[in-house]
Amino acid sequence: MACKLQNIQGCVPGKHVQLFSFILLVLTTGTIIFLHSSAAEVSPGGGVPRRRNNTSNRNIEVKEKSHKFILKTKDIGCFLDEKQNALTGYSFVDDNNMTVFRCQDNCIERGYKYAGLEAGNKCFCGNQVFTHNTKDTECKIFCTGETKLCGGVNRLSVFQLILSPYERSIFKGCFRRPDNITLAFPISAVIQNMSVDKCVVMCTEKEKSLAVLAGDRCHCGFPTQLFSLQELQNEDKCLPLCPGGEFESCGNDKYFVVYRTQVQDKRCLERGFLPPQPKNLVALASFPGSGNTWARYLIELSTGFYTGSVYSDKVLYSHGFEGETEDWRNGTTVCIKTHNLKMEGIIDFDSSILLIRNPYKTLMAEFNRQHGGHTGFASEDDWKGEGWTVYARNNAASWRSHALNWLKYGKKVMVIYYEDLQKNLVPQLRKIVKFLGLKVSEDRLLCVTSQTEGDFKRSKKGKLEYNPYTPEMQAHVNEQIRRVDTALKEKQQPGVPEDYIAK
């Protein structure tokens, strides 16, 4: 082709360049995320699926970015779920609003082949059913959110989900070939007419989280010390196109194209509570919109322990944050979410991780959340109205006060920048784990690198296309940043990143 790979979308109008259909870590909300699924009203991932009320044995049209595909569901019966789990992938519980569609939709959005419901309130996902079916009459409990059957006691109502795994794959980048390819990738095969879709399908079926394209060869595996996804290469090095996929890059014998499948790396899924330790309460403090929920997700995967919160948010609890409703004062969670900026709330903690994000992004993220929910956006009228101007002025000052008060009153404060988590994930997580007084598991950290995404993330579709800050607003925000920068340096902390100040 005459144009470079980076510019291919502009060269081919109307074509979706699949190589660039990845979900970046640049999260417009700063509030993401979890392995666990989202409710029907909260759409994780890169797009907002089109909802339909009817679920079973229906064709459901779903849109994600510029992809369009048909999903079919098939009720395959009632299955045992006693000594062995029928489905071993993602799962969640909802005691009030479980529906067949909600369970299917969450499994769909994770790229799983099967969805199963148990005891009216539990949803399980998987790519293989590991038990035998039983009498349909044993799945006789109604869903907590509708009058449809949702399994039984130790029985799953199982549905087959038919969709292309490629539609939910995530581009990770171009990486150099590892030294020992046999050890790095336990599964490998030559595929005729290679395409991204074919490799992702193969690796998904093999229950591996990485699909790695190297010319006509597809490798499947997980991130390891041999192939850690830490040294991203220029995409030009992976330029050769796939013979079986339009405008897709297939890599070559020296540089590999990597996609993440929707198979979850189980090395970091196991989590639990700490024994009670009320004398060691660690705050995860941030101004709203700074990525606290995303940071909690990463910390849970990295440490193997649940995080807590002073807010007891039932929505987050239903999405897998099991420490959310624990009494945060008993010390059974590894750190505790708080947005508190008053002295009396700060001194309750024995140490604190202060998460700071560029206030220009923070204010926009929180304004979007207030007007559009966790995954929606404020409207153009909202941005152009007086409300945004007043909000930005008042909350820029509150962003400053939050940081200054934690630096002043907090005990043993470690500052983490949201942007550093994006750019240098593993070193930052290693730093956090050590600060929490826990042993670093390199396997868990590598596991995190393959699944940094999750729920409560806005797609880029509704992203604002212009700068909503006037020169006067910029001057005000810049002044707050300078004051925080000064306070950090007075505490022998690194100052704010240089790009925080708007030019």
Please give a structural write-up.
The chain is α+β, with helices and mostly antiparallel strands and 503 residues long. The chain has helices at residues 8-11, 100-109, 181-184, 196-205, 292-303, 314-318, 343-346, 359-372, 380-384, 386-409, 418-423, 425-435, 442-449, 471-490, and strands at 59-64, 67-80, 91-93, 114-118, 122-126, 133-134, 155-162, 170-176, 187-190, 210-214, 217-221, 232-233, 255-260, 282-286, 308-309, 336-338, 351-356, 413-417. Strands 1, 2, 3, 4, 5, 6 and 7 form a seven-stranded antiparallel beta sheet that branches. Strands 9-11-10-13-8-12 form a six-stranded antiparallel beta sheet. The protein is globular. Mean pLDDT is 81; it is low at 1-70.
**Discrete helix count:** 14
Estimate the strand proportion.
Answer: 15-25%
- According to DSSP, the number of beta strands is 18
Shape: globular
Structural class: alpha+beta
Query: What oligomeric state do the depicted chains represent?
Result: single chain
Sheet having the most strands: 7 strands, antiparallel
Percentage of residues assigned to helices: 25-40%
TL;DR?
It is built from 14 helices and 18 strands. The chain has 503 residues and is an alpha+beta fold. 48% of the residues are buried.
